Amino acid sequence: MFYHIFRYRLKKLVRTREMIFWTLAFPIILSIFFNLAFQNLDSSEGFDPIDTAVVQNDNYRNRVIFEDILADVSEGEDRLLNLQETTLEEAEKLLEDGMISGYITAGDMLELHVKSSGLPQNILRLFLNNLNQTFAVIEDVVSTDPTQMEPLIASISDPRVYTEEMERETAPPNQMLNYFYSLIAMACMYGAFFGTEEVTDIQANISDRAARLNLAPVHKMKAFLASSAASYLVLMVNMSLVLLFLRFALGIEFGERVLLLILTTFVATATGMSFGSFISALIRKGENLKVALIVSVTMVGSFLSGMMYAQMKYIIHNNLPFLSYINPVSLITDSFYSLYYFETLERWSTNIVILMIMTFVFSMATYMVLRRRKYASL
């Protein structure tokens, strides 16, 4: 009887276009749009030389060292500045027209003139502050002990490095991944639609099919388990196809821990289905209300996990960390991210354990609600 129910339930689910769409077609379509929108996200953050002007006055011409330094940082592919030498009037006009980020004048100290504040202006400010401090040290040494001038110049020419470059032990950071991982988490949580229908189809006061099932000589729990197994199989196939599409069609990285990736998907889909079962058991009637609640919870969870705004995940983690541990979408997203980025499994294990606890709580709550439900007549 178990196999009979499983087989016919499987045939029904394959023909249910709405559920196949939300757990298979919709994530794939959305991932294509994500890929088109975010494919140049990392490359767009490369550093561009800062458009700068320097005023050619007498102080500038007399400071040959300063002139040489500006020439050095304005040459080559990795140059800091796109520098042009102008008069004061020309520099002010370029700044007013937004053609440069700022202009430099040489007096007793090097001064930066800007119109607005931003990253280029801050870099220029730090650069000039460093030059001013260096010139001040040189002038102090010349006035107090000229014999120390040679070792000072040597130390300036060959600055001591206090950082050591090491080989990367983790995967390279990729800003796109969090969007796609949260998309997968959303698709897993949309498995709640499968769980909702399973519970609906065993409540005799909601559907005719459920009424016939309750009259059949088969234990309701056995029928529920066989039907749920078919739903879970379809959901796992859908999620596997989504993962394969992301990996091989769009080139999204998941790391090399394939078995743990499968286990994560297995647990995540179980959480989504059990959540839908709980909602359906809790709300006796009103299919529209059930769907609205599932979609609302999933979309709010997706937003908090960084699907619409990547930094939101870190804002929540820093300010309201408990939300990260009660949001299943965030837990699923972080599980995929942990497998890709971290060598240790501590963070991944924490997420998976919490998801399994959620699944157990949703399942037990569903069972406790349904086992007490009786029908006076059918």
Keywords:
378 residues; mainly alpha; D-Maltodextrin-Binding Protein, domain 2; 4 strands; 66% helix; 6% strand
Kindly describe this structure.
This protein is mostly helical. Helix content is 66%, strand content 6%. It folds into two domains: 2-40 and 177-371, no CATH class; 48-157, D-Maltodextrin-Binding Protein, domain 2. It has helices at residues 2-14, 17-38, 58-62, 64-72, 88-96, 119-144, 149-157, 177-189, 192-200, 208-215, 220-249, 258-282, 287-304, 312-319, 321-326, 328-341, 346-371, and strands spanning 50-55, 81-86, 102-106, 110-113. It has a four-stranded mixed β-sheet with strand order 2-1-3-4. Strand 3 (102-106) and strand 4 form a beta hairpin.
What's the topology here?
Blueprint (H helix, E strand, L loop, with lengths): L1 H13 L2 H22 L11 E6 L2 H5 L1 H9 L8 E6 L1 H9 L5 E5 L3 E4 L5 H26 L4 H9 L19 H13 L2 H9 L7 H8 L4 H30 L8 H25 L4 H18 L7 H8 L1 H6 L1 H14 L4 H26 L7
Parallel strand pairs: 1-2, 1-3
Antiparallel strand pairs: 3-4
Helix pairs in contact: 1-11, 2-8, 2-11, 6-7, 8-11, 8-13, 8-16, 9-11, 9-12, 11-12, 12-13, 12-16, 12-17, 16-17
Report the uncertain regions.
Answer: none
How much is the radius of gyration in Å? 32 Å
Count of individual domains: 2
The major beta sheet can be summarized as:
4 strands, mixed
Summing up helix and strand content along with how strands pair, one would put the structural category as mainly alpha
Order of strands in the sheet with most strands: 2-1-3-4
Count of runs of 4 or more consecutive helical residues: 17
Instruction: Let me know the number of strands.
Output: 4
Proportion of strand residues: 5-15%
> First CA to last CA: what distance?
23 Å
Q: Summarize model confidence as the mean pLDDT.
A: 83
Shape: elongated
Helix percent band: 55-70%
H and E string: HHEHHEHEEHHHHHHHHHHHH
